[in-house]
Amino acid sequence: MRQTAEGRVISGGHFSGSDPTDDPQGLAAELFGRVKAMFRTERDGVPLPPLELDFYTIGYRPDPKDGHPILGDSGRPGLTLAVMHSGEGPGTRPFFSGTV
């Protein structure tokens, strides 16, 4: 979970190589419930405005089943692939972009 410069709170789930869901709205509601549970509902006895779900997206992202990056030739001239999840760590992007 993180907050953007605009003030939005962004959170996500992980499906690591599996099908995310047949019920995207239910999954979004479940995740939003977990996010809301992390925030106060009042401050110094004064109720805070409730959090509102702005939007959700559910889909597939490049995350190999074994969790290891996929690097190498694509089979097309001039196209090399580097498939990994952004959570691989801040040190990996510069390394892989320089390597590939």
Automatic annotation (TrEMBL):
User: In terms of domain of life, where is this protein from?
Assistant: Eukaryota
Q: Where does the FAD dependent oxidoreductase domain start and stop, copy by copy? A: 1-89
UniProt region (Disordered), positions on chain: 1-25
- Which Pfam families does the entry mention? DAO
Protein's UniProt name: FAD dependent oxidoreductase domain-containing protein
